[in-house]
Amino acid sequence: MNQIGIALDLGTSGFRGQAIDLATTEIIGTVLTARHPLPGANVMDHLNFAVDMGLDVAHGIIIATINQIIEALKVPRENIKRLAVCGNPIQLSLFEEIEIRDLAYAGESKRKKLGVVSPNRDAKKLPAKDIRGLALPADVEIYIPAAVKHEIGADALAMMVKSDLLKIDEIALVTDYGTNAEMALKVGDKIITGSCAAGPALEGQHIEFGMLAAPGAVHDIQPEKNGFRCYVLNNDMISVPGDLVAFAAPDIIEKGLAKAEGITGTGVISVIYEGLQAKMIRLPKITTSDSKLHLGRDVSFTEHDITEAGKAIGAIRAGFLTLAREAGIELGDIKTAYMAGASGTYVNALKALQIGLVPPGVSKIYQIGNTSLAMARDMVIDPEQLWRLQEMAQQLRANHCMFANSEVFAKAYLLELSLWGEGMPWDQYHKFNKMYGLPELIPPNPITVIIRLYERDIPDLGYRGVSYIDTVGYPSTVKFSGCTGCGTCIDGCPEKALSFSNEDDFIIRIRPDRCNGTACIRCESNCPEKVFKFSLIPFTRELPFIQ
């Protein structure tokens, strides 16, 4: 076999990996993880976990998962020549095992008080032996691209490069839709970047029947004469017509080509749009008899799901409102939008436009796929791309808007939470929008053109196709002194992350990839004996070398 390169997208909701034949540049195969391996629902949860539990622990869990991916790609390790990663600064810092506390604290004074010094996040080429626990030969070349500033990293650079944002003349916005939504607004020769922790709903997480984009996921819904048609991803990740459902009751009117196993983030957007159109959703309520919208007998959508989705939609709209204000433009000035990532690929772009995920005045929307994995693949094939990205990062560092410190973003997001979570009337929304001096939220352009470049977020899965890792990383076990084995922690876990490993000895098994971490800890608060201590869970510290 020829020499092989490994491309990795370390996403906030999950990892994606590809093996590439370096002689032919042909993709051999693709591996996706069902979830992110660290406890938590978003990038800030991952960061908090690393700060609280230790950088070494978080690094260990991430590297163990990367070892899983390399194993699942089924290529000879001795043939692997280089590996390139792409992701936001938090994920890449955890991968490299360098200081992450500077990313946790926005204030310079806080960092100085703690003695935190920001590490060098410029582009690096390292030998594999420098990445602790990585199950590769010591001399394999590791490529880590540069960050722009704080939370804007290589994934943001990737979406700008792969969208051709830098080459166009009109005012345009590119957004990588996901748990951590990166944005870049181009106005003339100026590019302003921003990033917001949109939350996991756009990746199908924190939704009762949510799932990532995978076979069996409902990704779109279309009204038909007798009901609503679910569109489901099949085993080749291609959209096919699923069941025709009633919405108001768990009835299947007509069977389709694929059964719904759950709903992905793009399906969430479609359900909300169709529910609003059918007057079955009146924010924040669902008006059906059981307060649910049914996508068949086994999958439904709840009022809690609306609230979770509203947080994500609201954060993204607040984000582009803030960037427009920073640039001194109105939303109607933004003529082109690029939608990147799995959610940006599979979502019905017109529905996304209607409910607020895209600037309302755009005339063109391009859906461009997973740019982060594509950029990692480019670096594997052409290592010089690493240094070209470094030059771009240096040019962009002066034009970053940190939403966490922005009063404009805070006001815009407060309005969105009032709209989605409390049902604020639109006339009140517009009144406060004007009072806060925000760009006017105009009606969506009715003649927007959609250009979908790829059928899948990963256009080429390789000649071996795609495989999935459902149990991401390695479970841990713990036994707490004083535990009575009542199972309250297990029953109360919203993500089903806990189970008894040995019920007789009250040994509890924890799946980090399902756990919501310190943002939840219901296991600890619900324990009647108060003996469950999240901080004492021995999350994976040793990294097993998978043979």
Question: Please, could you describe this protein's structure?
Answer:
It is a single chain. Helix 1 (43-53) crosses helix 2, helix 6 crosses helix 11 (371-381) and helix 7 (265-277) crosses helix 10. Residues 541-547 have low confidence and may be disordered. This protein has 16 helices and 25 strands. Strand 1 and strand 2 form a beta hairpin. The protein has four domains: 4-155 and 374-397 and 459-469, Nucleotidyltransferase, domain 5 (2-Layer Sandwich); 156-200 and 307-367 and 400-452, 2-Layer Sandwich (Nucleotidyltransferase, domain 5); 203-277, no CATH class; 476-536, Alpha-Beta Plaits. The protein starts with a strand and ends in a 21-residue tail after the last helix. 52% of the residues are buried. The radius of gyration is 23 Å and the shape is globular. It is α/β, with parallel strands linked by helices. A seven-stranded mixed sheet has the order 5-6-4-1-2-3-22, with helices on both faces. A six-stranded mixed sheet has the order 9-8-7-19-20-21, sandwiched between helices. The chain has a five-stranded mixed sheet with strand order 13-12-11-10-14. Helix content is 31%, strand content 23%.
